[in-house]
Structures are given as structure tokens and as C-alpha cells.
Write the C-alpha cells for this entry.
Amino acid sequence: MTESSNETLAVPAKSGMERILFLLSIGLGLGAVRKAPGTFGSLWGPLLIFGCQSFSSHPLFMLLCGVILFAVGIPICEAGIRHYQTKDPKHVVFDEIAAFPFVFLFVPLTWGTAIAGFCLFRFFDITKLWPIKRFEKLPGAWGVMSDDTVAGILAGLVLWGAYTISGPF
């Protein structure tokens, strides 16, 4: 089944846990916007990094955050896939949010890096340059989560390179 312009964004009338997973899958509603849901949902990413880096900005801590978010993202994105009954629903944005620890793995969050990291991530996520497109083909929520994680890693490498060359911005 494909998504239609009249698709419902209502919370599924299932168990409480299914409702929670669904709401997380749509970024607590930011992914429910009609235009550019991935971009709007990604706005949670820098806020997530602010929270993570307030505990520690050490690369191992950020990697741990990314791995945990990837793992919990599988059932969260599966709930969104079940709701929309399509392979990679555009309103499911937890995958975008969960990729941000990889964007900021080696770079501290500042206003400059937040904007640059956000833009770089959206560029890689939208263009699906190699090897991102290959990961998108994995089945179900694995593909939904993996392509954004790889986009986050690529964005993070470019951001780290720019930060290393130019210094703090």
C-alpha cells in the first residue's frame, strides 16, 4: 500500500506501548507535518545532541548514544511502518533523529556546528549518495534506520574535516 495525500496521522488505537512507539516514530508530531517532514523531524537532532553532550562530549559516549538510539529505533520505526503500511513512511522521522550522535561524534555542538551538521545531514539524507542508497534496501526498519545512520556518519566526517581545518565555528 502506498501513502496517499489523505493519509491519517491519528495515533493508532492499539496498546499503550504501540501508541508510544508510534508517537516516537513521528518525532512527537514534528514528522507529521505535510511539507518536508524529514527536515522538520530532524530539528530534534541538535536538541538531542545538546542533551547528550551536556553529560559528555567524549566520542565513546556519543558512539554509545548512537548505538542505543539505533537499537531502540528498530521497534520504534517498525511501529510507524505498521501504522502507515508502507516500506519507509515519510512521516517516520525517528531514524533522522537517531543519526545525530554520529554527526557530532567528534565535534562539539555550537550554533555554527549545529547549523552545519544539520545541513550536511539533510544533504546526505536527501541525496542518498553511495553507499547510503545501498543501506536503504535492507528490509523493514533495518533499512529505515541504516540509511540515515550512514548519512549521519558521512555528514559527521565532513563536519569533522571542516571543523579540523577551520577551527571552532
User: Anything to note?
Assistant: The chain is about 65% helix and 0% strand. The mean pLDDT is 92.
